[in-house]
């Protein structure tokens, strides 16, 4: 797997994931489990939804 999630994107995904989980706990709803998805994609630096669109927020090193 080629990394396609950059550092800023990782931080945002992690914060959003935590917020969804906390909301699920407060609301006593199983929908809070959806917060696991952004946390998982942030932890492995790879998002499957970026593949079909060719998106990458990872900085790449220039080859000379």
Short characterization:
The chain has helices at 7-27, 36-44.
Protein model, in words:
The chain has helices at 7-27, 36-44. It is mainly α and 64 residues long. The two termini are 24 Å apart. Helices cover 47% and strands 0% of the residues. The chain is built from two helices and no strands. It has a domain at 7-50.
Sum up the overall morphology in one term: elongated
Low-confidence stretches: none
Query: Count of helices?
Result: 2
Order of H and E elements? HH
Biggest β-sheet description: none
Overall pLDDT: 91
How large is the share of residues in beta strands?
under 5%
List keywords for this structure.
64 residues; mainly alpha; 0% strand
Structural topology:
Layout: H1 7-27, H2 36-44
